[in-house]
Amino acid sequence: MKITPFFFFGGLLGLLLVAACTTDPILPASGIIPEDPIVIDPGENNPCPEGTISFQYQILPIMVASCGYSGCHDRASHRDGVVLVDYASVLREVRPGNANRSDLYESITENGDDLMPEPPAQPLTTTQKNVIRDWINQGAKNTDCGVPCDPSVFTFSGQIFPMLQDYCAGCHGNNRQDGGVNLSSHANILATVRNGTLLGAIRQEPSFASMPPLGSALSECRVAQVRNWIEAGAPNN
């Protein structure tokens, strides 16, 4: 089974790389950070039991960002007969309760030329592979409980960067940079903060290309974490 990401984030064209950050608020070109929209996120009002993996909020974003796009495993392309865009299609590639005998897990943990996603796509991180493994071993259920989120906690290393890895890095990492966008480092991400495209895209404003374009949008709390991090000066902490 071939699993190759294709993620287009057109609203982030023309990035200006910035080498360092300041402790002052980082504003878009307009000088104004717009208020966040009101988004109801039932998942965050229904937190997962401790240790439970949420398919909707942890697994599906990885599948959509790293697999389920045009030319790969969206419905139209269905490369090698595989579609990975929702629970039913992902479930066909796993054996609930047994990650080691699941095609999906085998593909993302292969060695050498058989490893998926294929270059130049960004490979899944160890954390992403482990959460997919644990979800399968827990029975591969269509869990839609929420992942704990506190908008007042927004460090770059703890919340912001892992979030962008799950939702964006498949096509905007070191190995693949669709639209000329690389979100693999603080300096590159800071450039999208300064030109206003990061916040506009994750809030899915009409004048920006939505991120992610398919699957679950970032929740109100996740957007608030990014906004608060930006207002704090977008530190590399």
Automatic annotation (TrEMBL):
It comes from the Bacteria. Residues 1-19 form the signal peptide. Gene3D superfamilies: Cytochrome c-like domain. Keywords: Signal. GO terms for molecular function: electron transfer activity; heme binding. This is Cytochrome c. It comes from Neolewinella lacunae.
